[in-house]
Write a structure and sequence with these properties.
The complex is a heterodimer. Chain A is an alpha+beta fold. Chain A has one domain. Chain A contains 4 helices and 4 strands, in the order ββββαααα. Chain A has a 4-stranded antiparallel β-sheet, with helices on both faces. In chain A, strand 3 and strand 4 form a beta hairpin. In chain A, helix 1 crosses helix 2. Chain B has 2 domains: 208 residues, no CATH class; 256 residues, no CATH class. Chain B is built from 15 helices and 13 strands. In chain B, the strands form 3 sheets. A 6-stranded mixed β-sheet of chain B has the order 5-3-2-1-4-6, covered by helices on one side. Chain B is globular, with a radius of gyration of 23 Å. The chains are: A alpha+beta, B alpha+beta. Chains A and B meet through helix 4 of A and helix 2, helix 8, helix 9, helix 10 and strand 1 of B.
Chain lengths: 163, 470
């Protein structure tokens, strides 16, 4: 549907709203480097976090370990509860179809409407990859809370009303 | 009142033609300047003629000729940004004259000459890196962009964000890059929001040349009467722009104040206000309570932007904007206000305060989303004021603004901003009169639920983990 040039808009086109999610359980999740990856709080020790990911590919491999690369005990050939939580929060944050697309799932992606449906497609095995990069991306993410506030006019923000 | 507003339904001459030229140029950004075919070559060739009578003539001519010879040098992309901004600036000037006539006000006061400031040396390194990044983006074209080429720029962007003096560049680049990343890869054949993205590219490039001219700061005392807020946000920044009147004695002038805080993508909706709590509590209270703020020697720029300083403010009693709206904002009433700075001239920055009564809300469009947002539902409607159809600007309303179509429909009077987008004037509501109460757009909620405090949880993690790191 061609739009005449004068009808072009400077403003963002509405996108599906990100839903609020439980950052206490999953402080961080992202789609990056071909993985759905993030940081999941330990259920038992409030000072411990797990770094977990799902890898896009034909069978979707996964892993979960502490930041010191100690594997999660719950991983016994299939995703642990941390991985299940990670997927749940990824779907809340990005939407089921975008997550399915990122994992390169096959078939009609619009039929994926929940984390559970995506988890059924996870048929890979444990992929031992260094997770320190994920953890440092989490730290980069957190640094936004350390940046100073501003009382300056920012005319450029006129362009942004979403996100 | 509506008679003079009626002139808003016709575009000033030249605006349509400029839009056509810009659209053709924008297409080059989608395809990539490194891969131009006949259509793009024609668009670039047509540009110099439009700026031939301007001080930019020689630069733009050189740039276009060089690009057509595939000489891809950063300064030519800067020239493109200047050319596009100049065209939009001219459109803005014509539209500004038109809207002044429509509301029966004299032109906003001209901006006096600005002072240029010296920026620290490391700023110019960051700016150069940003210009290079933007050039590479233009060469590759939006349709071919890959996330892997954007990620490395965060090494520079992270540093830009740490510089308060570069907040404008940080704000636009952070929003632009995160928006691109969320959209990539572009499925082949899919339409790209090219006008918007080239707007963002252009604003970024201009800010990456050097610091924008700055205005000397003066101090003002008087009363600030808030009228409503623009809530602006993207994945990494929350920015509240409070629109208001500054009352000094018997004189009212239109002013703004903006407070902003960085955020992450999980901080959304009302949670965003937590980022400002503890730092800007008086301002938040003033908007929440629709209260008059007494200002003593508050710093203000010539643009009419107050640099909010909590120590210069004290919050007083609530007031109703509608007690004074007709006498201050009525058609034909003078309203001192600053002109948009020449650096910032763009139709999106036009904002003319009006007070409207005796309107009916009618439907003019239909939202296309399956689950339309509150803003989309507003965008479907227009105000009918004695024969004139004035569309409502829903696209400017954050979901967190609390301004919904049913509130607008129930209102008896409103105060709003006349805005320009999509080739037409539209009304963005700021304050509504419902019964005896005034509802301000973008006011913080009365209280935030204590549980699900995303900001507190992540701040706690940040203080534990980032301290440990250093």
């Amino acid at each position: 549907m061609a739009v005449s040039p004068i009808e072009c808009t400077s403003l963002p086109v509405s996108e599906p709203l990100s839903r609020p999610r439980k950052v206490k359980d999953v402080p961080y999740v992202e789609l990056f480097g071909g993985r759905v990856q993030g940081v999941v709080s330990s259920g038992s020790d409030e000072n411990r976090v797990y770094v977990s990911f799902f890898e896009a590919g034909s069978s979707i491999n996964f892993n979960c370990s502490t930041n010191n690369n100690r594997p999660c005990g719950g991983l016994r050939g299939s995703p642990c509860k941390h991985l299940v939580q990670l997927m749940g929060e990824a779907v809340l944050q990005f939407g089921a179809e975008p997550v399915a697309r990122y994992l390169k799932l096959s078939g009609d992606l619009s039929k994926f409407t929940s984390a559970r449906e995506i988890m059924l497609q996870v048929r890979g095995s444990q992929a031992r990859l260094d997770v320190s990069q994920v953890f440092s991306r989490f730290l980069s993410h957190l640094r936004y809370f350390e940046l100073p506030v501003s009382n300056q006019p920012i005319p450029e923000m006129t362009w942004f009303v979403l996100g | 009142m509506s008679d003079s507003l009626r002139i808003l339904s016709t575009l000033p001459s030249g605006v349509l033609e400029s839009a056509e030229v810009i659209a053709q140029l924008d297409h080059c950004f989608v395809v990539g300047f490194g891969r131009m075919s006949e259509r793009e070559v024609a668009a670039v060739s047509a540009l110099p003629r439009l700026l031939a009578q301007t001080p930019l003539a020689a630069r733009v001519k050189d740039a276009c000729e060089a690009l057509l010879r595939s000489e891809f040098v950063e300064k030519h992309f800067v020239s493109l940004a200047c050319a596009r901004a100049a065209l939009q600036g001219a459109m803005t000037d014509a539209l500004a004259v038109q809207v002044c006539q429509a509301v029966g006000r004299s032109d906003a006061s001209d901006e006096p000459s600005n002072i240029s400031t010296d920026a620290p040396g490391h700023h110019s390194v960051f700016r150069e890196s940003a210009r290079h990044f933007l050039m590479e983006m233009a060469l590759s074209g939006f349709a071919q962009l890959e996330a892997e080429t954007l990620y490395p720029f965060y090494a520079t962007l992270d540093k830009i964000q740490e510089e308060p003096g570069l907040i404008r560049l940080a704000a636009v680049l952070s929003g632009f890059v995160s928006e691109l990343l969320a959209a990539l890869p572009i499925p082949s054949g899919k339409n790209v929001p090219s006008y918007r993205w080239v707007d963002l590219w252009t604003r970024s490039m201009l800010l990456a040349v050097k610091a924008p001219p700055s205005s000397p700061i003066k101090t003002v005392s008087g009363e600030l009467l808030p009228l409503g807020c623009d809530l602006h946000h993207h994945r990494n920044l929350f920015s509240v722009c409070v629109h208001g009147l500054l009352r000094q004695g018997a004189v009212y002038s239109y002013v703004r104040t903006t407070v902003s805080a960085y955020k992450v993508d999980t901080v959304i909706g009302h949670e965003m206000w937590r980022l400002l709590e503890g730092t800007y509590d008086k301002l938040l209270k003033a908007i929440r309570d629709c209260a008059i703020v007494k200002l003593s020697d508050a710093p203000m720029l010539q643009s009419g932007d107050i640099l909010w300083d909590e120590s210069r403010a004290s919050v007083g009693a609530s007031y109703s904007p509608f007690d004074i709206a007709a006498s201050v904002l009525g058609v034909g009433k003078p309203l001192p206000r600053a002109h948009i700075s020449s650096f910032d001239r763009h139709p999106a920055q036009l904002a003319e305060l009006v007070h409207l009564t005796s309107y009916k809300v009618m439907k003019i469009d239909s939202a296309t989303s399956k689950k339309p947002s509150a803003g989309e539902l507003v965008e479907e409607k227009a105000l009918e004021i004695a024969g004139l159809k004035l569309p409502l600007s829903g696209a400017r309303l954050s979901d967190a603004s609390g301004m919904t179509i049913d509130r607008i429909e129930k209102s008896q009077e409103l105060i709003g901003l006349l805005r320009f987008d999509r080739g037409r004037w539209a009304l963005q509501p700021l304050a509504l009169k419902l019964g005896s109460k005034a509802e301000l757009s973008g006011a913080p909620p009365v209280s935030l639920k204590a549980k699900d405090d995303t900001v507190a949880v992540l701040r706690e993690r940040a203080s534990k983990l980032l301290r440990k790191k250093s």
